[in-house]
Amino acid sequence: MLLNNLDDYMKKYPNKRPDIIQQYGTAGFRNKADTLFHVTFRSGILATLRSRSTNGIIGVMITASHNPEEDNGLKIIEPDGSMLEQSWEKLATKIANIPDDNLEQCIADMVKELNINLKDTVAKVYLARDTRKSSPSLSIALMDGIKACHGEFQDFGLLTTPQLHYIVRCANSNGQYGEPSEKGYYEKLSHAFLRLTEHSKQQKLHLIVDCANGVGAQKMKLMAPYLIEKITFDLINIGDGTLNLGCGADFVKVNQRQPDSIELKSNQHYVSFDGDADRIVFYYRNDRDGKFHLLDGDKISALVAKFLQQLLNESGLNNIEMIVVQTAYANGNSTKYISDTLKLISDCVPTGVKHLHHRALQSEIGIYFEANGHGTILFSDNVQKQIAKCSNENAKKLLHFIDLVNQTVGDAISDMLIVEAILDNLNLTIDEWDSFYQDLPNKLLKVAVKDRNVITTTDAERKCVKPEGLQMAIDKVVAEFGPQARSFIRPSGTEDVVRIYAEAQTKEMADNLARKVGNLVYDFANGIGSKF
Ligand code: G16
């Protein structure tokens, strides 16, 4: 039998809201938690089939990351630790939306079409969850889906999303990438960090970490003792408030201010994670102007690129190809810094770590960060071998650096240690890092419309194709704000909104530009625009 006890499971997990289309979007399924039980059960089936078709262990993380507490979602992880293969995203969407009565037939067709061997393969799924109240019951639905499809599972309970990505990769590489456990993760990263910083002149480092009231808080408590000889932490928003509310990486990036609960002190580094700890942004109070300064994913990219360039040159490995991958949200001045000052190639791809990861894989070293603080660095096997062959001190540092990076996906804990280790090695203050370039003033807005899918884009989301006439209207407005102005729009893949980004010479101009473009989006998407 293809599926076990399906009738019983269908009674337990009927699709109560067939009116809602569940989409496997930018980073998996996302929606109000109470609409996701049938989706989660079905994703258990899908993950089991993916495991059989790849002959590897698949991961499923239950989280809605930066979204509000009442949302939840699923991120499916490939055996190499990357995000679900794109052709399977479509299958995931199909299975999630098929009427209850047709589910078994749909699965049978899929098995046939993809030629999935059900007899001689073992299916295994690793699952974990964030701290949302709905996550434990969704975990049960997921395990039921795996059982229904005759799969095996291992439930890791609470983990950050990047920890699960890491463990899945380790397990599928037979331990070559590291020990497939949470403890293995702490040991590998902390060892690399301590070795990388052991010769620095600076004393102990200290960091204030806003954990967004999410899973990062519990995991930082476990990580901190491993690092105590070099760095200590004050953890805030550790679960005493509401998840992602008035705190966290998304709040800080969008509002360009510190979390409500923080009063900025001089000479202090601050970071904010998001709800599942796969994003990070840095900030501090600049004593010259007494103001909040944000160092986002673009600044992290610039710092990493500069450091790696220097180490590669000093190791005699300057022929290695290195690229920086960004999205349309990257600040115009960060792109300029990468190409004009660092003389590196930068490329722009659509939003979503999966797109950046894919592009970064095509280079020997691929540095990728979204402006929102989501990113990592990828090193090809060939480069790792080349570095391992060099015996100089800088090459040894590079090897420790590679061990500090979670190459599967953006990881707030790993990225936090990467930045601190680089600043320590280069003997740079946060202010000096901030002065690499000055961000063009910018504004992020979101607009709720009847159907966000009426907006379609091209050119890595920098141009709007539909509704017709909207791009022309945006171009006209942008032209009013001078040569440095830029704006684009795109439908979100994680929330039911259209996002608007604008940058211009002054903050006031950027705010005004975003507002004007927001009004255009509202009008065109609701059929009030001139040519709609
Ligand atoms: C997810 C993705 C990110 C993306 C973000 C926002 O982040 O992993 O790559 O930038 O959503 O996406 P959108 O603008 O389409 O809503 P997270 O941290 O929520 O998983």
From TrEMBL:
Q: Where is the Alpha-D-phosphohexomutase alpha/beta/alpha domain?
A: 53-94, 104-172
Q: Which residues form the active site?
A: 65
Instruction: Choose any GO biological process term that the UniProt entry carries and state it.
Output: carbohydrate metabolic process
Per the database record, which ranges form the Phosphoacetylglucosamine mutase AMG1 domain? 205-281, 296-426
| Sites where the protein binds Mg(2+) | 65, 274, 276, 278
Q: Does the record's keyword annotation contain Signal?
A: no
State whether keyword Metal-binding applies: yes
Alpha-D-phosphohexomutase C-terminal domain mapped to chain residues: 464-516
Q: Which UniProt keywords apply?
A: Carbohydrate metabolism, Cell wall biogenesis/degradation, Isomerase, Magnesium, Metal-binding, Phosphoprotein
Q: Which reaction does it catalyse?
A: N-acetyl-alpha-D-glucosamine 1-phosphate = N-acetyl-D-glucosamine 6-phosphate
Bound how, and how many: what does the cofactor note say?
A: Binds 1 Mg(2+) ion per subunit.
Annotated substrate binding sites = 370-372, 490-494, 499
Q: Name one GO molecular function term.
A: magnesium ion binding
Q: What is its EC number?
A: 5.4.2.3
For this protein, the record's InterPro entries field holds:
A-D-PHexomutase_a/b/a-I, A-D-PHexomutase_a/b/a-I/II/III, A-D-PHexomutase_C, A-D-PHexomutase_C_sf, A-D-PHexomutase_CS, AMG1_II, AMG1_III, PAGM
Instruction: Report the pathway entry.
Output: Nucleotide-sugar biosynthesis; UDP-N-acetyl-alpha-D-glucosamine biosynthesis; N-acetyl-alpha-D-glucosamine 1-phosphate from alpha-D-glucosamine 6-phosphate (route I): step 2/2
* Cofactor list: Mg(2+)
Q: What does this protein do?
A: Catalyzes the conversion of GlcNAc-6-P into GlcNAc-1-P during the synthesis of uridine diphosphate/UDP-GlcNAc, which is a biosynthetic precursor of chitin and also supplies the amino sugars for N-linked oligosaccharides of glycoproteins.
The family annotation for this protein states:
Belongs to the phosphohexose mutase family.
Protein name, UniProt field: Phosphoacetylglucosamine mutase
* Native organism: Dermatophagoides farinae (American house dust mite)
